[in-house]
Amino acid sequence: MAKAGKAGFSKDLYDFIKVWKDKPGNLIMILHHVQEEQGYISKDAAMEVSELTGIPVARVFGVVSFYHFFKTQKPGKNQISVCLGTACYLKGGQDIIDETRTLLKLTDKMTSTEDGLFSVEPVRCIGCCGLAPVMSINGDVYGKLTKGQVKGILDKYRSA
Question: In the predicted model, what is the mean pLDDT of residues 150-157?
Fold first, then answer.
């Protein structure tokens, strides 16, 4: 087994990397497991994957940044998804995400609050088009939203 690095991988993750490191198409599979275990791909994790697999670190970062599925910032305790699919967008989805980000004091480059309580991401479809616009927090779906409802919804998760 590899020695523990800065990324703090579990034994299971090290074992998975050992099995997959020489297989074709290994990098995406390994990165999926890293994100599954840690919630995101940190700089230390990407560098450790590079070291353990022999894949150049530039390629690892290239794959992480190319696929929107991979997160590079630690998600908050409460993960907020705001639908920007066609129906939601046309009925005010962008206003909902803008209001959410404003209330959480997130700057353009931030996806998570400094206290780690919330993270926000736009998604293309939640599958509730008839309830547009829609926001989901930790799997709880809120539909037919207005900007005025967002604060009350967020407050429920602040006190939980």
Answer: 97
